Amino acid sequence: MVAARRILVVEDEPSVADAITYALSTEGYAPTRCGTGAECLDASAATGNLVTRPFRFTGDKLSVNLHAPNGRLVAELQDESGKPLEGFAAADSTPTTGDGVALLVRWRNATSLSGLGGKTVRLKLELTNGALYGFRFAV
After folding, report:
1. What is the C-alpha to C-alpha distance for residues 131 and 38, in angstroms, rounded to an integer?
2. Which structural domain range is residue 7 located in?
3. Are residues 6 and 68 in the same domain?
4. pLDDT tens digits, residue range 103-116?
5. What gap in Å lies between CA 135 and CA 105, rounded to an integer?
6. CATH number for the domain harbouring residue 85
7. Does pTM top 0.85 for this prediction?
8. H-type alpha helices, the chain
């Protein structure tokens, strides 16, 4: 028997969280529920992934509130369907490490996110050995 894939559901509205959890369970996932991201994304020595719903942002940089002095966070920007955007794939991301409330997330060949502002994207964050408390797009 194949083990169910674990997935984190972060939703502060209980009825919405119930519906999402049920739908994922019927698709073979093993959901874990949390009311806020700060409650949940603590990867310890394991690797955890966070993928947002599609959204639009303004700004030219992404920063994270992160505690990972001995860990790393890798970021990927995707289109609405989950396909990595050229230049913003996980493979293009420079791992973010350290402990701070506004650590900049960087990609090798991109100095600004301003060309993506207003477009619908998804954000995927992969965290190993750390805790993520939030992220922010800003100027």
Report:
1. 8
2. 1-40
3. no
4. 999 999 998 999 99
5. 10
6. 2.60.290
7. no
8. 14-26, 37-40
